[in-house]
């Protein structure tokens, strides 16, 4: 029996996402924000530009600053490995892509003056998915109800009364994607 310890790459999708986002932060810093504008932020740009479609997905990798990045990555690193172990890497990739696409499209169509970047939508998708991990057919866990009420209540409150640069819409949409994914993945598991 060996007592040697070694570091494992235990959650490849989540760890790759964190590393890619870190690289995007460094590049954004080195380009004085130009890389985010070009590739890692979604906004109302021409549909004739192929980069508009790329940004619908890649905006989740860009962040407005280091505190924004660190906050999102801490939640992803706390929640993501458990979800990736339970549902598999493919499901986590799909949730990240769907969340990016949904938040990107809604921002493009409904908020033409807003630029969106960051993984907050993905974080809230993971939060809602986590609340479904003990879901059983025919039951609605009280934790799901409480998380949804507190989460949606906070986002509506902040969206109406707090003036900041946080996209509460992306949080709500991410939460919806995560709730649907959590429900469907648990139903499929049974």
Please characterize this protein's 3D structure.
The protein is mainly alpha-helical and 190 residues long. It has a single domain (12-189), classed as Rhomboid-like fold (Up-down Bundle), CATH 1.20.1540.10. It is 69% helix and 0% strand. It has 8 helices and no strands. The protein has helices at residues 12-30, 34-39, 50-58, 66-87, 89-110, 120-131, 142-161, 168-189.
Produce the secondary structure layout.
Elements: H1 12-30, H2 34-39, H3 50-58, H4 66-87, H5 89-110, H6 120-131, H7 142-161, H8 168-189
Q: Please, how many helices?
A: 8
Write down how many β-strands occur, each being a DSSP E stretch of 2 or more residues. 0
CATH architecture: Up-down Bundle
Q: What general outline do the C-alpha atoms trace?
A: globular
Please report the first level of CATH classification, the CATH class. Mainly Alpha
What would you call the structural class? mainly alpha
User: What is the share of helical residues?
Assistant: 55-70%
The fourth-level CATH homologous superfamily is: Rhomboid-like
As a whole number of angstroms, the C-alpha radius of gyration is: 17 Å
Integer count of domains: 1
């Amino acid at each position: 029996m060996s007592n040697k310890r070694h570091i494992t790459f235990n959650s490849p999708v989540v760890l790759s996402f964190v590393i890619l986002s870190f690289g995007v932060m460094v590049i954004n810093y080195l380009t004085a924000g130009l890389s985010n504008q070009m590739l890692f932020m979604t906004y109302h740009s021409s549909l004739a530009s192929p980069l508009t479609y790329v940004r619908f997905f890649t905006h989740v990798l860009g962040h407005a600053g280091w505190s924004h990045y660190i906050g999102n990555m801490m939640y992803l690193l706390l929640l993501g490995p458990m979800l990736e172990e339970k549902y598999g890497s493919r499901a986590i990739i799909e949730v990240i892509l769907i969340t990016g696409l949904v938040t990107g499209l809604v921002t493009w169509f409904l908020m033409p003056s807003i630029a969106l970047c960051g993984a907050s939508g993905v974080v809230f998708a993971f939060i809602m998915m986590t609340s479904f991990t003990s879901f059983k057919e025919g039951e609605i866990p009280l934790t799901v109800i409480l998380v949804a009420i507190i989460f949606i209540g906070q986002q509506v409150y902040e969206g109406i009364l707090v003036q900041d640069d946080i996209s509460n819409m992306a949080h709500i949409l991410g939460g919806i994607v995560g709730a649907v994914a959590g429900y469907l993945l648990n139903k499929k598991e049974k």
